[in-house]
Amino acid sequence: MGSVSIQSLDKIYPAAGKNPAFHAVKGIDLEIQDGEFMVLVGPSGCGKSTTLRMIAGLEDISGGTISIDRSTVNDLLPKDRGIAMVFQNYALYPHMNLFENMAFGLKLARTPKEEVMRRVTDAARILGLEQILDRKPAALSGGQRQRVAVGRAIVRDPKVFLFDEPLSNLDAKMRVSMRSEISKLHSRLKTTMIYVTHDQVEAMTMGDRICVMKDGRIMQVADPLTLYHQPENLFVASFIGSPPMNLLRGRVERREGRLVFVEAAESDAVFVPLAGALAQRAEKNLGHEVVLGLRPEAIYDEARGADTTPLRARVELSELMGSETNVYLKTGAGTVIARLHTERRFAVGEELVVYLALAKAHLFDAKTERVIR
Amino acid sequence: MKASTIRRLKLTLAHVFLVGFLVLTLTPFLMIIAISFRRGDLAIGALVPVGDNFSLEHWKYVLGIPYEAPGADGQPRIIRATTPVLLWFWNSLKVATVASACIILLSGTAAYAFARMRFALRGLLLKSLLVLQVFPMVLALVALYALLQLIGDFLPPFGLNTHPGLILTYLGGIAIYIWMIKGYFDTIPVSIEESAKIDGATHFQAFVRILLPMSAPIFAVVFILSFISHISEYPIASVVLQTERQWTLAVGAQSFLYEQNYLWGKFAATAVLSGLPITALFLACQRFLISGLTSGGVKE
Ligand SMILES: Nc1ncnc2c1ncn2[C@@H]1O[C@H](COP(=O)(O)OP(=O)(O)OP(=O)(O)O)[C@@H](O)[C@H]1O
Ligand SMILES: [Mg+2]
Known about the structure:
CATH class of the largest domain in chain A: Alpha Beta
Bound molecules: adenosine-5'-triphosphate, magnesium ion
CATH architecture of the largest domain in chain A: 3-Layer(aba) Sandwich
Strand order of the largest sheet of chain B: 1-2
Radius of gyration of chain A: 25 Å
CATH architecture of the largest domain in chain B: Orthogonal Bundle
Oligomer: heterodimer
Shape of chain A: elongated
Distance between the termini of chain A: 37 Å
Structural class of chain B: mainly alpha
CATH superfamily of the largest domain in chain B: MetI-like
CATH topology of the largest domain in chain A: Rossmann fold
Radius of gyration of chain B: 25 Å
Helix content of chain B: 55-70%
């Protein structure tokens, strides 16, 4: 049905006027299963929209192939690809009422009247728009408008839904409710959806799998938990998770017969002895520049057996989040963030000993930025 | 002074200014109307033509209705207009309407290309359009005359002394309209047309069914501006149209002003007459001029 296969896809925007040519998507490969909810996430300008628009057929493909349902669509018009798209700015037809907005595509395809009626009212019912079908878009709230845009997509009965940051124009509350509404829609329709966002909460909560992009390349494709717990590289490690993973630059050395990680710092460098699996991985990189990554929640305010390593630090700032507290600790060369499960208040400048759960630490090669396994 | 006094003073001053401004703009207009209803053909006279001063002779003349007037010997005579003013009026209407419609068609499609398509020399062409617009069309009068003569040799209906020929010259001056419409298209997000394309619309359908209806206000404005400037256009029309029956109102009205005899009354009546279609057009287009036609489609 709606599987999407992308092979060595390239996009080069040609030079225009004073702007030189720009290589926006650099040979990406991506397999999306039928019925899967795939999220494309990455920082601004990484090529998410460009990729999505190439799938939609709104942007020429510079190289590679895109197949939908196992047939190549490179040269097909958008309408013949079996896709529907929801835009960030809704892109409704302002001079038509909601019914006409949703029926426009069907009317162009000369669908029989009763069929149009049935499909539009079905979509309107799913989205709770039945009562306002004769209104113009100007008379709607932002959430309703985005719902109409989704309705217009549903009416097309596509093999693949494409969403380009559909919620980023809504206020925080609306965003949360639309998020779950789209998730519900997905489990109801079981249609393939490709969803572009730069909001990692959306990515983590909605995606069956997440594709993290950077500078026109795919950094990692995995389900949310794998992405969180086993990042392939430094970029994914720092991009996923909030507050972000602590990354300490330094090198692996052998001191008095033991492997240690020594932070690269002028003074007061973080110095942690390595043991267990981490030591095995470190051993291969003895003397190399490495990056030690540790999630904020892998730092505790009390010792937990032999598995934790104490670290002395000074409190720079603390954010009480309710059930937990994010504490920014000055140590070594930079700041380490710890997410502590305590309601204790921390004073700025307070000296503190925290305990690092090094068994949960990640080790990256500082040069290639890839994880060390 | 109390605050309320100051406020009242400010209000009064504002009103005085506005009324003065109104008087300034309305006086010439009212004078023209007065002259068209005043006996005789003098430029100066009673501001409000009543009683003996009042006469419909100019209007009757202009509308081709015979009327009685004292002859050279003092005896009343029936006077019938020898000039086909109503025909001129019809010519003007025809030329201005057809020219404006063609201008909408040409500048609309050109503006679409400039706003939505990327092609070689696009920027250069846009800029040169603007530069060329700086030179008034009148400067090219000789060239236009020669061109029309040439065209007339091959295609007589489009040659000198024809209305299609005159309209053809008017179609040369659309750069400003292209810029206006392009500016409007630029404010309409491309994603709306992209939506239409995903919905299955062709380039042309997206243009006609999506972009055009959203652009009604700018097309109304362009039509009105073009209509106004062409219904009263004199220099080119006076050169291109050579026989009386082909004249437009602007050219014909000028013929009332001889060296020795300025027929101000008839001139004024023709002037008011040429203003009527413009007024009618304004009233007809008003509903398209409302703003907000494009609002609601996208998140601004
Ligand atoms: N029409 C264009 N011509 C030239 N360069 C373009 C064009 N469209 C996009 N780009 C460039 O391609 C890169 C990728 O753009 P794209 O819109 O795909 O980013 P994105 O990942 O969607 O970012 P965002 O999160 O900001 O929407 C950007 O650096 C952008 O400047
Ligand atoms: Mg984008």
